[in-house]
């Protein structure tokens, strides 16, 4: 019987060597040392053995069981280690990177200045009970123009040079889809998805087919805001405008409010800020006028409320379209909007790193 046990152990050694799968190894283990395994089978015939033989066979069987258990455990650990190594080798995350990267060094991660300002503004508005909404970059004429009181023959369409898409399903060469020219599209989506009273902001990228210069980019960022309810007035609007500027600049900045025309607001205003790049003396960012248009705004036009499914007799509201990139420029004294999109690390790493 001793030989029989040794033979079984040899068989086990031979079989286990070729296995690489954890389940197969566990199966093999129970095939050999399980309750109905080969060893147990052998031990069943112990009853026919002499007491001498029993004394020798019992410990031998135990040794073999222990050996098999140890071998299985070692094998499983090895397989696990190999799997982890393979995963690490194919993973793109290098978890071995040490944390001794110096702040501001080329290896240190950091936030884009726009992200920093956007998060700050979002926090301010969240604390005042505003929601934060998002909307698609590719829009239709309805959301970008019609619902905002800009019908197709309206000259205001020319105010915003538009990138158009050709609708692949249209029979003719109709230009139906476009890259949104302003985040005001989200006013429409916001109104249609909620019931007044409500208030939200909507940061996002917008696109205009324009020539670029120090203060103009084809791809830039705005932050829309809208508040709709009963008895909303211009003083609410001014309060919120002042709050943002005070929180962002942490100092008094000179502003001026002048009438501005946008078909979706009535009355409409332009809120300008004294240029912080040149202190109002004139530079390429403010086009030598000393003031920068930062916050176009106004009281929502009744036609826009109607297009948003809102009873314009009962409710009114204000909206604004903050020039996010311009605000970032004013805050950090950046003299050319094109730096923001440049992806140049010498620019990006000047701001807060983490
Ligand atoms: N959507 C306007 C623009 O991009 C800005 C604006 C928004 C004006 C909301 C008034 C109210 O020029």
Automatic annotation (TrEMBL):
<keyword id="KW-0436">Ligase</keyword>
<feature type="domain" description="Aminoacyl-transfer RNA synthetases class-II family profile">
    <location>
        <begin position="110"/>
        <end position="330"/>
    </location>
</feature>
<keyword id="KW-0547">Nucleotide-binding</keyword>
<dbReference type="GO" id="GO:0004826">
    <property type="term" value="F:phenylalanine-tRNA ligase activity"/>
</dbReference>
<dbReference type="InterPro" id="IPR045864">
    <property type="entry name" value="aa-tRNA-synth_II/BPL/LPL"/>
</dbReference>
<comment type="similarity">
    <text>Belongs to the class-II aminoacyl-tRNA synthetase family. Phe-tRNA synthetase alpha subunit type 1 subfamily.</text>
</comment>
<dbReference type="InterPro" id="IPR022911">
    <property type="entry name" value="Phe_tRNA_ligase_alpha1_bac"/>
</dbReference>
<dbReference type="InterPro" id="IPR010978">
    <property type="entry name" value="tRNA-bd_arm"/>
</dbReference>
<protein>
    <recommendedName>
        <fullName>Phenylalanine--tRNA ligase alpha subunit</fullName>
        <ecNumber>6.1.1.20</ecNumber>
    </recommendedName>
</protein>
<dbReference type="Pfam" id="PF02912">
    <property type="entry name" value="Phe_tRNA-synt_N"/>
</dbReference>
<dbReference type="InterPro" id="IPR006195">
    <property type="entry name" value="aa-tRNA-synth_II"/>
</dbReference>
<dbReference type="GO" id="GO:0005524">
    <property type="term" value="F:ATP binding"/>
</dbReference>
<feature type="binding site">
    <location>
        <position position="266"/>
    </location>
    <ligand>
        <name>Mg(2+)</name>
    </ligand>
</feature>
<dbReference type="GO" id="GO:0005737">
    <property type="term" value="C:cytoplasm"/>
</dbReference>
<dbReference type="InterPro" id="IPR002319">
    <property type="entry name" value="Phenylalanyl-tRNA_Synthase"/>
</dbReference>
<comment type="subunit">
    <text>Tetramer of two alpha and two beta subunits.</text>
</comment>
<keyword id="KW-0648">Protein biosynthesis</keyword>
<keyword id="KW-0479">Metal-binding</keyword>
<dbReference type="InterPro" id="IPR004188">
    <property type="entry name" value="Phe-tRNA_ligase_II_N"/>
</dbReference>
<dbReference type="GO" id="GO:0000049">
    <property type="term" value="F:tRNA binding"/>
</dbReference>
<keyword id="KW-0030">Aminoacyl-tRNA synthetase</keyword>
<dbReference type="GO" id="GO:0006432">
    <property type="term" value="P:phenylalanyl-tRNA aminoacylation"/>
</dbReference>
<dbReference type="GO" id="GO:0000287">
    <property type="term" value="F:magnesium ion binding"/>
</dbReference>
<keyword id="KW-0963">Cytoplasm</keyword>
<dbReference type="Pfam" id="PF01409">
    <property type="entry name" value="tRNA-synt_2d"/>
</dbReference>
<keyword id="KW-0460">Magnesium</keyword>
<keyword id="KW-0067">ATP-binding</keyword>
<dbReference type="InterPro" id="IPR004529">
    <property type="entry name" value="Phe-tRNA-synth_IIc_asu"/>
</dbReference>
């Amino acid at each position: 019987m001793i030989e029989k046990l040794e033979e079984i152990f040899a068989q086990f050694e031979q079989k286990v060597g070729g296995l690489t799968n954890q389940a197969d190894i566990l199966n093999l283990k129970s095939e050999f040392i399980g309750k109905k395994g080969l060893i147990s089978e052998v031990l069943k015939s112990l009853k026919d053995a002499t007491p001498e033989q029993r004394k020798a066979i019992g410990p031998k069987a135990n040794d073999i069981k222990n050996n098999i258990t140890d071998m299985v455990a070692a094998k499983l650990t090895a397989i696990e280690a190999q799997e982890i190594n393979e995963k690490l080798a194919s993973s793109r995350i290098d978890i071995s990177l040490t944390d001794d990267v110096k702040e501001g060094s080329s290896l240190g991660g950091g936030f884009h200045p726009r992200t920093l300002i956007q998060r700050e503004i979002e926090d301010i508005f969240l604390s005042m009970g505003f929601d934060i909404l998002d909307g698609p970059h590719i829009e239709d004429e309805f959301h970008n123009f019609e619902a905002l009181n800009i019908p197709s023959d309206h000259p205001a369409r020319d105010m915003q040079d538009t990138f158009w898409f050709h609708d692949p399903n249209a029979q003719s060469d109709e230009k139906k889809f476009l890259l949104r020219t302003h985040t005001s599209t989200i006013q429409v989506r916001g109104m249609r998805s909620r019931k007044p009273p409500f208030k939200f902001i909507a940061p996002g990228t917008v696109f205009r087919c324009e020539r670029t210069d120090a203060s103009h980019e084809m791809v830039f960022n705005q932050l829309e805001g809208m508040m709709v309810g009963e008895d909303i007035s211009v003083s609410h609007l001014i309060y919120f405008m002042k709050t943002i500027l005070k929180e962002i600049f942490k100092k008094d900045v000179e502003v001026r409010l002048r009438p501005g025309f946008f078909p979706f607001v009535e009355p409409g205003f332009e809120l300008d800020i004294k240029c912080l790049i040149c202190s109002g003396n004139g530079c390429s960012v403010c086009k030598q006028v000393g003031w920068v248009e930062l916050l176009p705004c106004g009281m929502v036009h009744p036609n826009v409320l109607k297009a948003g499914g809102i009873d314009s007799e009962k409710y009114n509201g204000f909206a604004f379209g903050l020039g996010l990139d311009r605000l970032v420029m004013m805050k950090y004294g950046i003299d050319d909007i094109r730096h923001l999109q440049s992806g140049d690390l010498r620019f990006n790493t000047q701001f807060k790193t983490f």
